[in-house]
Amino acid sequence: MSSDDPFVLAGEPFTSRLIVGTGGAPSLEGLAAVLVASGTQWTTVSIRRVSTDAAGSVLDVAHQAGVRLLPNTAGCRTAAEAILTARLAREALETHWVKVEVIADERTLLPDPVELLKAVETLVDEGFIVLPYTSDDPVVARHLQNLGCAAVMPGGSPIGSGLGILNPHNIAMIVEQATAPVILDAGVGTVSDAVQAMELGCDAVLVASAVTKSADPVRMARAMRDGVSAGRDAYLSGRIARRFGAQASSPYEGLLDGMVFAPDA
Amino acid sequence: MTSETIHVFLNGIELAVAPGTTLASVVTNSTSLTTGIAVALNSEVIPKSTWATQQVVEDDVIDLVTAKQGG
Q1: Residue of A nearest to B67 (CA)
Q2: In this complex, how many residue pairs, one in chain A and one in chain B, have their CB atoms less than 8 Å apart?
Q3: pLDDT in tens, B12-40
Q4: Active-site residue numbers of A?
Q5: From A54, A72, A91, residue closest to B71, measured CB to CB
Q6: How far is residue A72's CA from residue A106's CA, in Å, rounded to a whole number?
Q7: Predicted model pTM
């Protein structure tokens, strides 16, 4: 990742545009290696009741990997639950950063926009740095920006589905209207999905299952790191326009007699 | 007449404790974790700085949480 193209989030510059969640990893063992391989500077964690039989701690893993913690209100179905969870996370982890996820139902795991907006409004007022998980609806994304979120995080497709970006046009519209960084979050299945997100102009990508549930998580983490970087460079390079017809890249001048005809003058 | 125990709920499980038991005592008897944890008492976050003085009462609902994989 280039240091002359920092990813600025809530006024802080970061060199990595990839966030890797801890969700989906079969165990804590090896998770640190995955986070290190990805080059990420952030990882997400959920807030759950303390269990007496827990062995090891995701906090130790994050510390070992040298990454910052982004608590997530995953599992919350209402604004009240998300607000309480965010407050608990702030107290437990001593951070004002929070990814706000308020889910409507188990089948789709789509965010409930009504409850999400209520939660975000309260949490921004309480001084949280809010990163909301939302759908690819540009209208909701605009509302979230207007409430003062530090970024908007539209899903490409349902959480854990690996379906990639189902509606690239909507993601492009969210990018076009963005006044805060856009972090594609949810549905990434493999590296090409992350590359597509970056080429659409997203500022970063958050992945979890695509890495933690892959057959070789460390290798996939490295590939995601490289893909996000390549996608960002491609976006900044300015791609050629799409054309309906062909356009030769070799000159017509100097063609030998009898070769492919030149276009009419 | 003073009851010898009161009943509270800790992480969904009923717990009998002595009257006057503090949140700090409930926490230390429940987990060896001393960092990365937080407590909600009846859905209100209680700052760690007040655990030693916050006493629990009958039917209090206590949630003791920490960070886990996810998100």
Answers
A1: A47
A2: 97
A3: 999 999 999 999 999 999 999 999 999 99
A4: 99
A5: A72
A6: 17
A7: 0.93
